[in-house]
TrEMBL record:
Family per similarity comment: Belongs to the group II decarboxylase family.
One Pfam short name: Pyridoxal_deC
Reported cofactor(s): pyridoxal 5'-phosphate
Protein name: Pyridoxal-dependent decarboxylase
An example Gene Ontology molecular-function term: carboxy-lyase activity
Biological processes, Gene Ontology terms: carboxylic acid metabolic process
Residues carrying N6-(pyridoxal phosphate)lysine: K306
KW rRNA-binding (keyword) present: no
GO CC aspect terms: cytoplasm
The keyword Transferase belongs to this UniProt entry's keyword annotation: no
Organism domain of life: Eukaryota
Amino acid sequence: MNAEAQFFQNTTEVLPSPQDLAHARSQLISTLPGPGNGLERVREHIQTDLVPAFDRHNKVANYYGFVTGGTTPASLMADHIAVDHDQSTMVHLPKDSIAVEVEDCALQMLCQLVDLEPEQWPHRIFTTGATASNILGLACGREYVLKRAAAANGYGDVSVADDGLPEAMRKAGINKIQVLTEMPHSSLRKAASVVGLGRSCVLDVGLTDAAHRFDFEALEAALSEPGTASIVSISCAEINTGFFATSGDDMQRIRQLCDQYGAWMHVDAAFGLMARVLPQCDAYSILNEGVRGMELADSITGDAHKLLNVPYDCGFFFSKHLALATEVFQNNNAAYLSVATGSETRAIPSPLNIGIENSRRFRALPVYATLTAYGRDGYRDMMDRQVKLARAIASYIESSPDYELLPKDNPIENVYIIALFRATDPKLNEDLVQRINATRTTYVSGTQWDGRPAARFAVASWQVQVERELATVKEVLENPRATTEDL
Ligand SMILES: *Cc1c(COP(=O)(O)O)cnc(C)c1O
């Protein structure tokens, strides 16, 4: 993959200049033309006015904001082809197009990449991203836990899909649904809002002195509350630190608790899942352990536009409960979408009946292309380079008197792809992120840690070359821009 790096490295600047941004803004068109401007003029406008004002996260390796990822050359090539042929993957029509079968092959290979048995995850689908996948997880979980509660309470079958939440809860004898988690990504609360559970149903049951890990006493106390149905959502990994919530033993314990109390076990593994691609070795033993036991979950959220390095937008969702998914997402009463199942293919569920969208883009093709182009070995190497860079940056920060690595006393073996840190000089720390980003050769994102500003490097690009990137980072951290006047 590295041989292709030159393909993208035609700039070292991470951000557009203020002049490029100002120029683009001055050229934006917001009044619909009567007679159109024509293809050529619009192409020229986009290339010369707008493109220079885009961020360059996909053009350089030294962009470390927000776990954006980039796009591998194979995925970029395939995305162009997907658009060129404008394939929709709504219904499986085996006589019309191979597209849905390609999607299913891509999903099977994704399972294999992260060491999950495709047969165990029959409800698998590409989504617009991890937020959408979390919505799927809570929607399926909500249906499941009420069915389990109704059965346990001796009532007949219930269906949120048909009856709606209040009626299904009443029939199941449940007066509260909660999502039990620790340091969740913000999108989990958004997902709870969308599926009608509400943000306030998301309860943090993390330990006081290690907030990213479950307090099992608090978890079990919440699960055993009478009249309550629960979804357990595991953060894999935490967005500020990259820390993993669970060990393999923890996963077994959560599985056992979920079975005991009729709860649904969901893992938000947007970027943590790719740790399963890393080699099993001493250097990665903490990371190996952090993603062990994931096969015990009912559902898993993954992001492909992050560490898989395919274009926006692309997430995925795996669940063990296909029949349940069909109940929730069935696109009822659309006879014109019914499918004549041919004997030439095995049964692949039509995506419209197991996911949010009806019409949907062929986001599977870039995944199919990148997985077949680079294989398990290519991705293992890519993840290995990313973790090595994050650890090299963390080591440098730790050894520098000007910076401190966070959280305190964090051993390097804990570092996955994120290095969280701050400047020791509080004055410098105040606008450290702006100063670093003003160099335009390195980009970090800001956050809060222990109530004070902090910055974070999130390594997520397939292009990373450890020594080259480390040299740039050191240079920037040794000389963050003195002034932020021209920001
Ligand atoms: C990024 C992220 C999300 C949201 O993903 P989108 O693709 O932006 O919707 C959810 N959960 C975790 C843990 C994430 O890192």
